[in-house]
Amino acid sequence: xxxxxxxxxxxxxxxxxxxxxxxxxxxxxxxxxxxxxxxxxxxxxxxxxxxxxxxxxxxxxxxxxxxxxxxxxxxxxxxxxxxxxxxxxxxxxxxxxxxxxxxxxxxxxxxxxxxxxxxxxxxxxxxxxxxxxxxxxxxxxxxxxxxxxxxxxxxxxxxxxxxxxxxxxxxxxxxxxxxxxxxxxxxxxxxxxxxxxxxxxxxxxxxxxxxxxxxxxxxxxxxxxxxxxxx
Length: 231
Known about the structure:
Elements: E1 8-12, E2 18-19, H1 23-34, H2 42-53, H3 59-67, H4 70-89, E3 94-95, H5 99-108, E4 112-116, H6 121-131, E5 139-141, H7 155-164, E6 173-177, H8 180-189, E7 193-197, H9 204-210, E8 214-216, H10 222-226
Parallel strand pairs: 1-4, 1-6, 4-5, 6-7, 7-8
Antiparallel strand pairs: 2-3
Helix pairs in contact: 1-2, 1-4, 3-4, 4-6, 8-9
GO molecular function: hydrolase activity
Protein name: HAD family hydrolase
Keywords: Hydrolase
């Protein structure tokens, strides 16, 4: 199969199609304070490093790793989602330049686009609402919509494949994101095209190590790639 055979495109949100200007770290600070982890301490620095390294992973999974027991993890996740939602409501997010146009081009080319996230549904909906994207694509998915595991598991990609019916073969699926976790989820799902973008958390070496076949400057270059114009 070639790039032109792609029928379903699964795109990450924050860092890939959505520019959030480091809001994940700001929301983490708010959540960490709630659990007694103060900025400037070694504990905070260690936990923040882990948050940065695991960008793209389901946030509740990150907090389970950081805070151990389920009650503390759930509390941290609730505080994180609340803080992130408030930042979104404050107008601190925007589309990655060319992202909406890329989605519209992909759709015009006859491809189905699904937006996915590691955030909870309430936060995903807040982002979609803030950007005016509620009707941009036919399906959006968060970890809870696909069994709860999130990335780097392939579940959201496979859920998109099953729910849309847009492709006959997983090799007709493209997965694109700004983290190694996005890439790994696409590889594990058997997607025919898996690409990293340089507009977010991770860089080329992490993408290649996770199995990306392509690295793009941004999602704006995806329609041309899938038309076989560039790559």
